[in-house]
Amino acid sequence: MRKLLILDARDNVAVCLVDLEAGDLIEQDNIKIKVINRIARGHKIASKEIAKGEGIIKYGERMGHAVAPIAVGEHVHVHNILGDRLSTEKP
Known about the structure:
By secondary structure, the chain is an all-beta fold. It contains no helices and 9 strands. The N and C termini lie far apart (37 Å).
């Protein structure tokens, strides 16, 4: 059963298709991710390391930027990203 949705090779986040628990190991589509914290279905998980200020890429499009470093397997949400439509700061 697929647990993540990644639609573009440029993506650095994936959409969770199921609820994930800390410690879960996902091996799918030539990636291996250990989940760092609980992530609800429909939320994003980092599929690559993301540096502070780096763009958040989902479906091949930039949707915002990281306001803190984000590790592979970490929940990607309002606590560590800022959407480009809401941002007045320069990434």
